Give the backbone structure.
Amino acid sequence: MGEKVQGKECVRLALPGDLGPDSLRGEWKVEVHPKEPRVLTFWDTFEWGLWFGGHLLYSSGGVYHLCTRDSGQVRWLGTELCEERAVGKRRFWSDFETEPIRGKLEGMLGLRGLAPVAEGILRCHKWDLRNETGKIVCRLECDTVSAGKRGEKVLRNSCLVIPLLGYETDLARVVECLAQTGAFSSDDGPLEELLRDAGHEPRPYTLRPAFGLEFGMPARDAVTRIVGTILEIARRNVPGILEDLDTEFLHDYRICLRKVRSVLSLIKDVYPPGETRSMRTELGELSRQTNRLRDLDVYLLAKEEYLGLLPPGLRPALDTMFADFSSDRSREVRRTTAKMQSPSSQKLFQEIEGFFSARALHGPAPAADLAVGPLVFLRIYKSYRKIRRLAASIGLDTPDEGVHELRIECKKLRYLLEFFSELVPGKQYASMVKSLRRLQNWLGEFNDASVQQKSLMEYWRRKGSATEVALGLGGLIAILYERQQRTRCNILDALREFCGAANHATFRQSFKLAEPLAAGAVKGHSEP
């Protein structure tokens, strides 16, 4: 019926708004000990990392408290794990100074920034219940959570009934008396109440949502559903970009735009050709608005890694470069947000959303009414075969451009598998994606090292850096080049696995058998 607090069996009850100590004074003498009200501000990320990680973080009176958020907990604010007194706000896990709270937050927050998700006033008071001899037989910890700046809207009263040693039998009688006056069992805490009142509902966030696709669904319907869902995710990220809460908003926004453009190139002829080209151009324009800001984010996020690669004596030489990047970023944030908020950009995004609306009318196209399953299976198998052909030419001396081409083809295949994962049997899908992800990780590291070297060289040429800065840049470029060369061996190992007999058989079994059906379905349809 209850849970234990300090070894005692206790019960948490929600109380009607008008229930006070008078309801118990018929059997016990009630002494009320009020406490000062506290303003509680609850914090979480855009992805609700703390909530779904089973924790809550709140600040009150200049102190941050990290607590558990266990279902059925008897204390409304959970079990406190650690706290930190802080002057001002904390946005990232790294802004906290004490190791206990830093260590626990790092895994739940990652690169995400904290923002207030709810605020309320908590009023606490204790009731001591004495029997006829004057002995305290039970204590009640009563809490009231209110919304509004002055706490004028009471959301829920709650009490924790705690028996004293030797008077455990009084617990049942106190609970019974409270129940008769309208009290009831509830696990909801103050955060749940405040979120419910504000109309906020924590929901999982993912860049790989389910689309509800079916094998025989018309291709245009499938693409429309995929793109509509991805554009909704992109729009959810826009406020975070405009407020510059953290770098992940822009990162995810750009991924969404890239995915939409990829759908249109991977599943061709779903819309009339002219309309498709126009949409790809408009999506490219939206993405280009944020290119420079994303580049600067990448450089600044890599700052500690870059410095860690250099000997201590060369690290100060890069301070000028990162100071330049930081100043550039401040200007670019203003430019990017102004562009995104401009009427022309907002109209452009709305036009794109309208084009992919289920209600939009489009002209005929060769693949519009074809069953999406056979069409996609044919495309997946052709993509895998192209990667195997490219893999045969990849070696330790392959120019960067050749490795880059392989990376692009692997990305296309990953998007195909991701978009249409609901059509692929789960066991085969997991096997294929695992080996593809490993290959992509190494290709991505290779490409990052290549791009970073070019960017650092461009910075050096543009700035005409002083000798000490040039020395630091030269050392860093040399280290990145050496890392890139080492990665080539890892790419070859991952390619052997991905293109090997076992994986080839899995792809052939999953998609080759559908090829005759798919070829018939797309007769007269231009498929690369």
Summary: DSSP finds 17 helices and eleven strands in the chain. The radius of gyration is 30 Å.
